[in-house]
Amino acid sequence: MERIIDILFLLYFGSHIPIALFFDFQAVLPGWMFPKLFVDTVDWYAEEFGDAMMKAKPAWFKSFCTCELFLQFPFFFVALYAYWKGISKCRWIRLPIIVYSTHVVTSLIPILFHIFLHDFTLESYKGPRTFTERLQLSGFYFPYFIVPLVLLLDALFHPVYVNGGSESTRTVKHKPKGRKHH
């Protein structure tokens, strides 16, 4: 690791693996695939914090969780490798990070809008009703918006990518002008 922010990225991808594996994937995979402890934890969380998306599992929400399963989850391991080795040695990660982070940020926008604007009184499962409850529920999702946004900005603008590895502005070496020999 070369930069302090890489520790955040490592923690993000490293922690996302078990969260996705044991909790998020319950939205798209059969319940028998998960230990009872994790099923009970998701049930408790959804009831306690009003996450009707995890209980009702609407098709639009399942589509995001399916993308997480087949696209994002394998990428977590690739990103862990690149950030562990150091991005100056793995500059190839730039484009995959841009694709990943753009996908995740745009996936979280409808989820956050749903949390804040949906009328959950019409749902069969308890959802957040007050602004405080909506803020509390969005707090579980917001890190998966803000960290990918930081990843995206980092991949787009950090000198290690933009200047080919140099933290300072890249200087071009010129050959000294001399006489041409014929």
UniProtKB/TrEMBL annotation:
Residues 5-152 form the EXPERA domain. InterPro entries: EXPERA (IPR033118), Sigma-2_receptor-like (IPR051987), Sigma2_recept (IPR016964). Signal peptide: none annotated. Keywords: Endoplasmic reticulum, Membrane, Transmembrane, Transmembrane helix. It is found in: Endoplasmic reticulum membrane. It is a multi-pass membrane protein. The chain crosses the membrane at residues 7-29, 59-83, 95-117, 137-157. It holds the Pfam family EBP. It comes from the Eukaryota. Its main location: endoplasmic reticulum. Belongs to the TMEM97/sigma-2 receptor family. This is Sigma intracellular receptor 2. It comes from Mya arenaria. The lineage of its organism: Eukaryota, Metazoa, Spiralia, Lophotrochozoa, Mollusca.
